[in-house]
Amino acid sequence: MIPNQQQERVFYDSRLKRFLLLSDGSVYEGRALGADVPGIGEVVFNTGMTGYQEILTDPSYAGQMVMLTYPMIGNYGINDDDFESDKIQPSGLIVREACEDPSNWRSTRTIDALLKERGVAGIQGLDTRMITKHIRSAGVTMGVICDDPAAGKTRLAESAGYDEQDYVLSVTTSSAYKWGPEGKESVAEPDPAGRPRLVVLDCGLKFNILRRFWRAGCRPIVLPATATAEEVMSWKPDGIFLSPGPGDPKRLEGVVSTVRSLLGRRPMFGICLGNQMLCHAVGGETFKLKYGHRGSNHAVKDLETGKVTITSQNHGYAIEPNSLNGTRGKVTQINVNDGTVEGMSVPDADAWSIQYHPEAAPGPWDSRPYFASFVEKIRNGN
Amino acid sequence: MKVLVIGSGPIVIGQAAEFDYAGTQACKSLREEGHSVVLLNSNPATIMTDPGVADALYIEPMTLDFCTRIIERERPDALLPTLGGQTGLNLATQLEDAGVLEKYNVKVLGTPLSAIKQAEDRESFRSLMREIKEPVPESWIVGTDAELEAILDVVPYPCIIRPAYTLGGTGGGIANTREELMETGRKGLKLSMRSQIMVERSLLGWKEVEYEVMRDSNGTVITVCNMENFDPMGVHTGDSIVVAPSQTLSDLEYHMLRTASLKIISALGIEGGCNVQLAVNPHSFDYYIIEVNPRVSRSSALASKATGYPIARVAAKIAVGKTLDEIDNQVTGTTKAAFEPALDYCVVKLPRFPFDKFATGDRTLFTQMKATGEVMAIDRTFEAAMMKAIRGLEVKQKDLRHEKYQAQDDETLEASVKQPTDDRMWAIIEAIRRGWSLDRVNKICKVDKWFLRKLQKLVEVEQRLVKASESGEDLATLISEAFLIGFSSPSIRSLLDGDGEFASRAAAEIERQKVQPVFKMVDTCAGEFESNTPYYYGTFEVEDDALSKI
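Predict the joint structure of the above. Result:
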C-alpha cells in the first residue's frame, strides 16, 4: 500500500502554462497539474465517471497518458485503500479540471498532491472533449506533456512508439510472493488448508484480482512473467491464471510459449492481456483497435447463454476472431457495440479467458462471479 | 398488436409533467415497432393527446367503467399501464380485480402488476429486502410504556418517533438519548388516538442518492444514471437540488450502491425502468434503501434529459419483448441500448416552487413535495451549471444575491441555513459570504462540503467583482474569470459597482470580452462514438460540436 503521507495543501499557479503535444502535430495549451516533469506516452481516453485512483495505479496503463472524459476529476480525493498497485502507472494525466478541495470520508489528499508526491506529470484546463473526438477519429497516438513545446516536439520525435516497447517486464513482480488476507506474503508462508493453489503469471496485476481470488477461496501464488512452465508446475498449482498487462501481446513470445506448454496441464483462466495471450498460444492473432475500449459501461454478450452484462474495460488490442478458425480455440463472448471478441475458450484444455475486467476497480461488479466459478472448478480438481 | 396505453390524467402538484413526456415517447416507440396504439387520457392539455401520437384517442374519464367500454369496443391485445404514474397503475389494478382483462383476454405488458404491488406495499417490500439482504431503516411499533422500555437499549440513536393517527404529526420528534426517547415516546403514546407510535432510525443529514436502473425480459440490468442530492435526507427528492452524476462518491461507493440497485430491480422482476433511492452515511460505507419506484417517474424523466438516454422509449420496447442488446441507441445511431451512459458534463436540477403565486404558503420543506416544476442545466462544471439553472428558474434572483438573507442578522441567518425552504441555498450562500467556515455551515445544514466549496468559489469571484473598483484588480482577467465560472453579463455589470469612469471602463471590458459560448453535444457516450442527435448545451470551451467536422 502507498503510505499515507500527510501533505500540505499544494497550490498551483493557475497561470502556469503547460502543453499537450500529439505526434500528429496537434498542440493544446493548458495549466500545470502534478509534478513539474515532462510526461510521454500513448494518449488514450477513459470514459468512466469515477475510478481515477484505480486507473492511475493500474499497470495496464504503463507507457500511456490517460485522459479522463469526465470534466471534474478528483472530487472524492485520494484515499489509502483504493490503490491497484504500488505505483502510479501512466506517465501522465490529462483532465479538464482537477478538484483542489475533495470531499469524501476516506480522502487523505488531492489528486494533484498524489501526482506531485509520485513525480508524475499532469495537465488540466483543456477541452478534453475536443481531444477525445480527435483521438476517436484519428486513432490513439503518442503525446507529450511539457512546459516548452519546442523541447517537447524534439522529445516526441526521438521517442519510440508505444507498440515498439516492452512494458510487461517493467511492471511484473521481481520475485515470487503469495497473497493472503492482509495482502502480500512471503513465499515461505504456509498455505492454509482447504484452499486450492492458484499460480498467477504477473504481467501487470491489479491488487483487486488477488483480493477477489482470495475471497473466492483460493491461495494465489504470484510469479514473475518470466517464470518458465517448469517453475510454474513446481508450485504444484491446482489452476493457472494469466493476468492483464500493458502493451502489444505480439511482443510477448516468451510468456506465450510458457502458456502454450502449460495448456491442458492445469485448468487455466485469463483476463485482458491473458485473453490475448491464450489466443496467441493456440495460434490465433490479435490486432490493435483504433482507440481501444476504456471505460465502465461496455455491454458484453455471452454467446452460449445469451446473457448481456455491463463490464469494465481497458484494452487497446483485440482478438482477430477469424484467426481462431481451425485452432483449438473458439469465441465465447462478444462486445454488443462493435462485435469485437470479449472472451474465448480452449475446451479441450479446460482454458478460458475474458477481455474485460471482472475484478472491477474501477467499474461495475456484475462479472465478479467468474472468480468463484473458476475457484470452484479448480477446487473439484476440475 | 393493438396496445392500450393509459395516460396520467390531470397534472397535479407533485408531478413535473413527466408522465406526459414518458407516455408520448412510449406511444411513438410502440408505433415504431409496428404496433397500433389506443390511448386513454382524460387530460387534453398534453402532448400525448396531440393528433398523430396514437392511432386511436379517447379523452374520457379514467374510470373502470369507461375503460371497460373502451376495451369492449377496441378489443386491444395488450395493456401498458406503467407509463401513467399512479393513475394508470390503479386503473390497471381495478381492471384486473374486476376480471375485465381476463374476460377480453388483454395481456398486461411490462412489469407484472404483482411486482409493482410488492414494491409499493411497505411490508412486503421490507420482507423482500430482508430476503436479498439489502438494508432498510429499522423500525419498531410500540403500543405500551412497557414495550417502549423494552426497546430503549435496542434502537439506534438518534431515532425518530412518529405517533400513529395524530394530526400533522403532533407528538413526534427526534430522540438523541434513552431518556429523550422515553419522554417523547410516552407523550406520543398519550397523544396517539390508537395509543401507538413508530420508532425509526433517523437518517437526517445522510446523503441522498438515486439510481435509475432498467431490466429486460432476458434479465439484463443497466444503470442509466445516478444522482446525488445537494439537500441531505429529510427533503423530498422532488424538492431537492439534484446533481448528476454523483460527485462525492468514490468508485467503490458508486458501484456498491449500483450493485444494490440492480439486485433490487432483479429481485422484483421488473421489466422496464425503476428508480431506487438510497440514504448514504457520509462517514462510512453504511447505506439504507429508502424507496423504490417500479415505473417511469419524475426522476426517470430527469435522468432521460440529463443523459440523453430515452428511458420511456426503451421501457416501451422492453414491454413488447425486445431486449436491451436488440434496441438501438437512438442518440448515437451506431450503438445499442445495452450500455450505461457516460457523461462528460455536470447536470444541475433546481426545483421550481409556486410561492410567488401562493405568497402566504408555508415555505418550509419536508417529506411531502411542494415543487410544481423544475429546471435542468448542463455545463462542464458544477459552478457554471448551477449559475445557468438559477437564471433559468425565472425567479427574482438571477445570481447569488438575495435581499431577504442579506438583511438577516447572524442568529436569524443560522436558523435560515438550518431549516430547508424553497430558497435556502441563498441563505447558505449568504453565510459563506459572511465568512462562516465551511465546517460551520456544513454542521448546520449538513450539505456536503464539496457543494459548499463550489458555492464559495462563486462567492469569491462575486466579492472580487464587488470590490474591483477599490482593489484595482485587473479588470480584463477578472471579467474573463467571472464569465468562465458562470456569471452572466448583466450580473457582472451590476456587481462591478463603481463611479462613472470605472463603470464605463467595466462596461467596455464586458462588451469587449463577451465570451461566446460553444455548443457541446449530449451524446450518451462522452465522445467515444460518433452521434447524430442534435441535443446541445452551451459552454465556454474551445471546440464547437455543432460546427466541427468530427
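Chain B touches chain A through 57 residues (CB under 8 Å).
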